[in-house]
């Protein structure tokens, strides 16, 4: 088996072997994340901790092997090592080794969760790309509108939070401006924990205004993204050009240009 | 009354008798579900339990009769018995009989609720079909986009849950990663019970980010479904057929088929 | 001043006097509702109750006078008396008189709130009609889709509520199925009071599913209404017909038919 | 350096110096707001209060200098002084000076937050204008629809609040109609603090209806804004001008002006 062959299996998704490798990797990732999650359940821990410990090292060695092979077969190992996925791959094995050096490094456990991010790499399998692209292009196209919106929300949160701090004061739980801003975020996003809530009539009036504002402006990002998405889907449909009369905007199922009758180029069918 | 006649009444919705049967069935379903619900109210139970018990058996026998008749008149009883509605019909009578064998089987009571699912069968009555179809086609068309979205949400929930577990820790109620993930779901969906809420400044900062993320990404599925629905409704409106070449999907103001040049039938004005 | 003249002032909105009457009525309605609201504040009550009592009777007599005049000047008093607004007008004065007969009839106070509904009548003033019509037509057009959606939500609420009743049981606050259904509504609508919340791991898992379902299906009614509204606005724009070639769908600012060059009928400008 | 030159730097955004000035101003605004926020954290206060005090006066003098220079270089100082930004600029320095006269005027601290509003002025930098304009035009176009919607929501809130006051009464926390209206707002906006929640079965039934109504009508403003935004973006895209007759708004695939027949300029493909 040549280096190119292994590269095709590990990095590619078109060959049968490559697809099988991806599926095994997904299962391993899910299993290792499940181990991390179950290990944290305090009730299970004392009893089963030993098995989780072994499983953890099994997955660490597995992913270390995968990382080394990826480095080895990559035509440009440095490019891979410093790519997004290369760093994720490294981060998913590092914490276990670090915990050997510093036995108390439980806080690095979280980095193991990063493994789940590696699952994005195999998304190619599901041919989700086109959909993700449409979504991503829509978000990118409305980037500036969304930034303007988020800036307005941030300003509203700061203003409402500070007003509440002045109205309710530390005696009602609003002990500082950051805490009041936390309350404003809880309220504007309509989460509403209730751990801090206004008790004075004036505070409740301001809280009511905050809620109604949060409730109303929720419509704005939805409107932005929906309008962009609709346009993006419209654009996709309009990418078919008639070579003869240069007319675009044909229906998805059009076989002839509805302007000059020239046959349109065949389209790949979306499944 | 022939077998076909009874089949027409029980399974069909076009004859007057069939429609009357459907209405009676709906009433019986609602009544039996109400009995189950009211029976659970502890205040009413001791006093009226006897009546509920009788009512329960009355409906069980009624639905048993219905099930037997359906099996009998069905041209292919096996197909019916293993169809979705056939299984629901069986599940709606089984629990009562099982409770005779095992007097403590109160936990099967929930299956009786399944009866309410049978109401879908008579929805045909209300000519809801076309609307449900549009809705269903839209959801199906955006299936992959929604899966990509749900996958991103799941990843965010796991990542935020684990981070909170590390930041707040068991002493603030985040006793395990599954519990932290539960908190993350409560927060990202903007439900916000408040049974677990962050108490450290760092935890509240992370919670704020979680909320804002949840608030913002709510716009994405709405955008997806709206854009699909708009397209689907657009497509529906374009169901004008050319009688000559059998092509549909003409523009609203088209007077000639853009496929073969045949004049299109005049359109009724939408009211 | 003739009867017709008074009718024009009280029921009409086109004359200057009619508009002035409407404005006075709006102010009186707001003032009387404010009295009802302020009267309920227990802190203010003992001290100012007397003034509220006088104010209450002042408004009652005012609205009685208005009701009598409306009945008198109406060409068909019976039609007015049994119309929606006629009943609201009567309901807004009845409670005060009934409270004379039965001094303890405080529970009728709420009917006085009905007065605020009379404000709808003067909405004509603001020329909101066209917008309300578009909104109303959209909701009506998507009536069946929304009913199908609400039916699905109702089913989900019943199913999730019953499951929670079985899983958590009376010892965790889910004392009956109706209470569990209340919890399911609180959760699916993402309100999340936290007065009842799951405490067992299985219950929290089911609650997480409930939340994610509620979060996701929120997109469906938004999609339905948005798509309908967009279509409605599209339709409005397309109501202009060319008399010559019978082509519709012209731009809002088109002066000539873009098909045959015939001048289009002049359009009323929307302000 | 002439007066015009300074004006160009302070008020303009096109020159390199002007852009550098804007960036410095943004940093100063963020820093001064951070000082106000951090100063309120009671844990930090006793220890670091002195440094915050000095920082506060540093920023006050800086913004005073900026205000004076703006007044001096402005061609029409009065117009600037009474403009929106002129007032904000004044309000951002006044509280510090007032606090010298009245040492207890801590409540004016909030006005210092107004400084953050000055950041809007430099938004021009980011070319956000076009997006903000589209957003603003959409909101303005749907102004009347949104007002009708808000009026309906206000009515629902008053009616539900009053009903709850009658059903639950002061013994369950609904001590007055304003408090009940506060509860109705918390519920309809799906915030759900849980500080006041119904305890009687009838109250919980009404609360369920309130939640479902709030959940459903959230779709209406989203629909309004989305439909408007989609139309607005549609309109933007149609900004192709005919050089001959100066007519815009041609279809995306139009090759000739549908007004005078002049060929349209070729369109750049949207990337």
Automatic annotation (TrEMBL), chains A, B, C, D:
<feature type="transmembrane region" description="Helical">
    <location>
        <begin position="51"/>
        <end position="73"/>
    </location>
</feature>
<feature type="transmembrane region" description="Helical">
    <location>
        <begin position="206"/>
        <end position="227"/>
    </location>
</feature>
<keyword id="KW-0851">Voltage-gated channel</keyword>
<dbReference type="InterPro" id="IPR027359">
    <property type="entry name" value="Volt_channel_dom_sf"/>
</dbReference>
<dbReference type="Pfam" id="PF00520">
    <property type="entry name" value="Ion_trans"/>
</dbReference>
<keyword id="KW-0406">Ion transport</keyword>
<feature type="transmembrane region" description="Helical">
    <location>
        <begin position="146"/>
        <end position="167"/>
    </location>
</feature>
<protein>
    <submittedName>
        <fullName>Ion transporter</fullName>
    </submittedName>
</protein>
<dbReference type="InterPro" id="IPR028325">
    <property type="entry name" value="VG_K_chnl"/>
</dbReference>
<keyword id="KW-0407">Ion channel</keyword>
<keyword id="KW-0812">Transmembrane</keyword>
<keyword id="KW-0472">Membrane</keyword>
<feature type="domain" description="Ion transport">
    <location>
        <begin position="20"/>
        <end position="235"/>
    </location>
</feature>
<keyword id="KW-0630">Potassium</keyword>
<dbReference type="InterPro" id="IPR005821">
    <property type="entry name" value="Ion_trans_dom"/>
</dbReference>
<keyword id="KW-0633">Potassium transport</keyword>
<keyword id="KW-0631">Potassium channel</keyword>
<feature type="transmembrane region" description="Helical">
    <location>
        <begin position="21"/>
        <end position="45"/>
    </location>
</feature>
<feature type="transmembrane region" description="Helical">
    <location>
        <begin position="80"/>
        <end position="101"/>
    </location>
</feature>
<keyword id="KW-0813">Transport</keyword>
<keyword id="KW-1133">Transmembrane helix</keyword>
């Amino acid at each position: 088996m040549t280096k190119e062959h292994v590269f095709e299996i590990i990095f590619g998704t078109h060959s049968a072997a490559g697809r099988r490798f991806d599926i095994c990797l997904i299962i391993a990732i899910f299993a290792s994340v499940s181990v991390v999650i179950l290990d944290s359940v305090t009730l299970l821990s004392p009893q089963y901790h030993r098995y989780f410990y072994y499983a953890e090292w099994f997955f660490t060695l597995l992913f270390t092997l995968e990382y080394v092979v990826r480095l080895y077969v990559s035509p440009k190992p440095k490019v891979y090592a410093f790519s997004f996925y290369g760093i994720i791959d490294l981060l998913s094995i590092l914490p276990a080794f670090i915990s050997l050096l510093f036995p108390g490094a439980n806080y690095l456990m979280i980095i193991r969760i990063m493994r789940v991010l590696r699952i994005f790499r195999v998304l190619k399998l599901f041919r989700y790309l086109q959909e993700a692209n449409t979504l991503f292009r829509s978000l990118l196209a409305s980037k500036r509108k969304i930034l303007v919106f988020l800036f307005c929300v941030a300003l509203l949160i700061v203003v409402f939070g500070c007003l509440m701090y002045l109205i309710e004061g530390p005696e009602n739980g609003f002990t500082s401006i950051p805490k009041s801003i936390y309350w404003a975020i809880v309220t504007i996003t309509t989460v509403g924990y209730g751990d801090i809530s206004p008790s004075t009539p004036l505070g409740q009036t301001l809280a009511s205004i905050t809620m109604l504002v949060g409730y109303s402006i929720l419509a704005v990002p939805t409107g932005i993204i929906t309008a962009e998405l609709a346009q993006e889907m419209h654009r996709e449909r309009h990418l078919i050009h008639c070579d003869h009369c240069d007319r675009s905007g044909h229906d998805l199922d059009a076989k002839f240009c509805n302007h000059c009758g020239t046959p349109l180029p065949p389209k790949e069918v979306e499944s």
